[in-house]
Amino acid sequence: MSNIKLGIIGSGQLGSLLCQAAKKFNIRTVVISDDKQGPAQNYSDEFIFTEYTNKDKMKEFIRKVDIVTYEFENIPVEILKDIDKEKRVIPKPEINQTIQNRKLEKKFINDLGIKTTEWAFIKSFEDIEKNKNLLPGILKTNTLGYDGHGQFVLNSLADIKKDWRFSADYILEKKVNLSKEISIIISRFNKKEFYTYEPIENVHVDQILKRSKIPAVISNEIYKRAQANAKLIADKLDYIGTMCVEYFIDQNNNLLVNEIAPRVHNSGHLTINAFNISQFDNHIRAVCGLSKEKIEKVANAEMENILGKEIENYRNKSFSDKEFFFDYKKKVIKEKRKMGHLTTLKE
Known about the structure:
Distance between the termini: 33 Å
Number of strands: 18
Largest sheet: 9 strands, antiparallel
Helix content: 25-40%
Radius of gyration: 20 Å
CATH superfamily of the largest domain: ATP-grasp fold, B domain
CATH architecture of the largest domain: 2-Layer Sandwich
CATH class of the largest domain: Alpha Beta
Number of helices: 10
Oligomer: single chain
Number of domains: 3
Strand content: 25-35%
Order of helices and strands: EHEEHEHEHHEHEEEEEEEHEEHHEHEE
Structural class: alpha+beta
């Protein structure tokens, strides 16, 4: 057990689940967030509400912790670097500098010899015209964006509005003739030890994850290559903690990296009940310098995200001993907002 004080940036459901995992190791958590109603405050030992640019509050946060981690990657890198000067930030800020920028992320992956979707860097309408071979495609902001935010479907050049101002940089990705989507959750520790969970099969609806399951129905070749790619990416990033690599599998059985999430991931929620040690436990162990323990699968599982008003029905339901309901305790219900999840263990 440990008396480490862990700082967590971000107060959403991932932060909540990290706080719950930390309690198992007697690790005190201090959450800092710009969301006054962030649900992680229900599970943290201390909660600091502030804008991340408030230097006095950030200094207070730094004073109260030994190590810092985060639940989301879109934190300004300079803020992470400033914290890292006084208290170690894990994963290291330089990783976010790459992952926050889709151009840098895709170049990093491709330079490792790993396939992604076909893509081009876009700064103007003329750039799209030059790369019209990538249509139909998806235009994504080069920075920021998640769960479909900052993304625009372009079936042809006619879909680009004449008054559209290219006020930001973009990435244009060719649409994939999709067979299925999978993800790999991998935890990497200080001594270059790692644990790679088995591939998870995912279904997205309106670009938001709706359900995940293990085992994924994929070939043994895809299974091994997805894990090997994730390990190579984690090693080259010199990553510490839990991260996720999301993949597309196209109709020709090509395995393509969609994106990297340098944090615990929604698709890995089923590891809480399907394994003796979850992605959250492993992240806490890794960033706090605790030893890697033997990990065993308990059961096959399916996880369903509970979105928006769906939560109202689940709060009144009864569940079997194979079903595990997680209510994120978010005060405001919004359409398509992740409000909770249900994991069901299978034979």
